[in-house]
Specification:
288 residues; alpha/beta; Rossmann fold; Helicase, Ruva Protein, domain 3; 2 domains; seven-stranded mixed sheet; two-stranded antiparallel ribbon; 9 strands; elongated
Length: 288
């Protein structure tokens, strides 16, 4: 069954009375070159179990199942279940969880389904939920080797930007704190049905084995990042003083202790400088 053939897809969907949900951000891949590339770049191979988030009609699921030992997919749309039974018939190494990825226990799925296997995540993420899902995966520190996802092109550029560059933001810092991110390849809007209004790109994040900071310092670090980037055009001195309710004198002292200029903006700082500033400020902050 050719799941990237428009005629075949329309026939299957029509037979099951399926209509696309804008609320779920459903855009199914019809470019036959995309899913094999995602699978091959996303560690879908022998010795691996792959967690997929959002199946659509199973185009990527099928490619993952052809390569990996096991595939566990989380799909929220109950209407897709009978379609997947048909499109994935014969693949006994696939298990579909009809759940909301933001509410289910992903760690439990990985640990129970992928015993004795390395694990990876692959997904074609709906644009509206890209950041929440990525942060869930990273903050949960799941035992995965890689996270390979397709996202909106603009989001890909921001997620994979160098911390301290003009393109970076709070989400850039967060992703780079948890792992190494890189953009793999672009995907044109015509590769989907229905076609979205923007192009996409596939990125890969390789999570670090150990956290950069202890839990208490990490929590404070993200307070600093969130506070500073919420007013990114202001100097770090003004933004942090305002958002963290700390006197400018204390913030200024922390900047000096971290070897930074008082007129620097948080968005200009690289990762090691952000960590140095956060550590210096945490030492001086009496309200923490």
């Amino acid at each position: 069954m050719n799941l990237t053939n428009i005629g075949t897809v329309k026939e299957i969907l029509g037979r099951h009375g399926f209509s696309f949900s804008k609320g779920l951000g459903q855009n199914f891949i019809i470019n036959p070159d995309i899913c094999p590339k995602i699978a091959e770049n996303g560690n879908a191979r022998q010795g691996y179990g792959v967690l997929e988030i959002g199946t659509g009609i199973g185009v990527l699921t099928k490619e993952l199942a052809l390569r990996a030992d096991k595939v566990s997919a989380v799909e929220i749309d109950t209407r897709l279940l009978p379609i997947l039974e048909e499109t994935l018939e014969g693949f006994d190494n696939v298990h579909i969880y009809n759940e909301d990825v933001m509410k289910c226990d992903l760690r439990k799925i990985i640990e129970e389904d992928f015993k004795g296997l390395k694990a990876a995540v692959c997904a074609n993420l709906p644009y509206y939920i890209t950041s929440p899902v990525l942060m869930l995966l990273l903050e949960s520190r799941l035992p995965v080797e890689s996270i390979t996802v397709m996202v909106q092109k603009e989001a890909a550029q921001r997620l994979c930007a160098k911390v301290g560059s003009r393109e970076s933001g709070a989400i850039t810092v967060a992703v780079n704190y948890y792992g190494k991110a890189k953009q793999l390849f672009g995907v044109s809007r015509g590769s989907f049905m229905p076609a979205p209004n923007v192009d996409s790109a596939v990125i890969k994040i390789e999570p670090y084995a150990e956290p950069m900071l202890d839990p208490e310092s990490e929590k404070y670090f993200f307070r600093v990042v969130k506070g500073g980037f919420s007013q990114r055009r202001k100097t770090a001195l003004n933004a942090l003083s305002s958002q963290l309710s700390i006197s400018k004198e204390v913030v200024g002292e922390a900047l000096r202790n971290a070897g930074l200029a008082e007129n620097v903006r948080l968005e200009q700082l690289e990762m090691d400088e952000l960590i140095a500033l956060s550590s210096a400020l945490k030492e001086l902050d009496k309200s923490k």
